[in-house]
Amino acid sequence: MITMLDVANKAGVSKATVSRVLAGNSYVSKTTRDRVFKAIEETGYRPNLLARNLATSKSQSIGLMVSNTLYNGPYFTELLFQTATLTESYGRQLVLVDGKHSAEEERQAIEFLLDLRCDGIIVYPRFLNADELTAIIESSPKPIIAVNRQLENSPQHCVYADHQQYSFNAVSHLINSGHRDIAFIRGLAGSPSADSRFRGYKIALEKYGIDYREQYIAEGGWTPRSGIDAAKTLLDRGITFSALVASNDDMALGAANHLHAMGKRIPQDVSLIGFDDISMASYFIPSLSTVRVPVAEMIETTLKQLVDMMDGKPIDALQPFPGELIIRDSLGPGPYA
Fold first, then answer.
1. CB-count exposure of residue 74 (10 Å: 0-12, 13-18, 19+)
2. What is the pLDDT of residue 54?
3. Residue 25: beta bridge partners?
4. pLDDT class for 58, splitting at 50, 70, 90?
């Protein structure tokens, strides 16, 4: 196996000089650097990245922790794509780890990224609560930013959308369009996004003096199949609703499938709205009204904030990202219009 000493002998320099070149030390002359890199190419030497990370405390990598229960659907496909693309634009590698099924496993995944000497870490948690995340951030030797979670005690370390507010706006739009009997499909149990969107629904009903009714609520799991099951649950209860809000577009499309199978027309019989504005939403027939969540902008802000932290630049607390209500063909006037 080719070693650093072999490279040093080939280049006619000391082993310490080769180490300084690999660490990017600016005090090594260009002539010497060129000789070292030529020797590396000729010998086929591959640096031990872990050893180099230990020596320099830098790995030129950014860690991303996401729990595997959140991998489904176009929303997270876009999240991962944007994170990988933008990380590359900063000249760094992305290291993805699985937070699995519990707060403790999410904590272990973050510790694993720290052990790899990642220069900064992005976490998209499901199980760790705000206090636990704040404690991890405050004790971490490397900067950490949480995505899609508000941290009141660490406002510089979180990037999030105001799910409650834009859910409130969507339901308010339905009410102002003449709808009063509005059903709701919740997201995956325990999801902060699902809980916030559900709160926005309830607050809108309360503001407009509409009674909250438990039989108008169905549980979902973010997938189209769970949207089908939720719509079936609602119809099997024998209740009448003129509008249905699903906590994401995948469930909305699944619900539309079952409503159509049961002879319900959209939007003539049931107006339908989702969240996330996935690419399929505008191609669906009728096109799906939804709330656009600015995933790309959120990830861009996350990476900039994290890199600024890594570079020691001053940072400010970030404001929540607003959602944009996109009105398409699946929304129509209600019976009280």
1. middle
2. 47
3. none
4. low
Average pLDDT over residues 20-42: 81
Q: Are 120 and 143 in contact (CB under 8 A)?
A: yes
Fill in the DSSP letter of residue 266: T
Cα(323)–Cα(164) distance, integer angstroms: 10
Name the residue type at position 39: A
Contact between 258 and 183 under an 8 Å Cβ cutoff? The reply is no
Instruction: Report the alpha-carbon distance of residue 247 to residue 236 in Å, rounded.
Output: 20
pTM above 0.90?
Answer: no
Please write the tens of the pLDDT for every residue from 269-328: 999 999 999 888 999 999 999 999 888 888 888 888 998 998 888 888 888 888 899 999
Q: How far apart are CA 113 and CA 2, in angstroms?
A: 28
Amino acid identity at 1: M
CA distance 82 to 168: 28
Task: Supply the DSSP symbol for 147.
Answer: E
Distance CA 60, CA 119 (A): 6
Give the full edge-to-edge strand order of the sheet including 93-98.
Answer: 93-98, 61-66, 120-124, 144-147, 158-159
Give the position of tokens 């040093």. Answer: 8
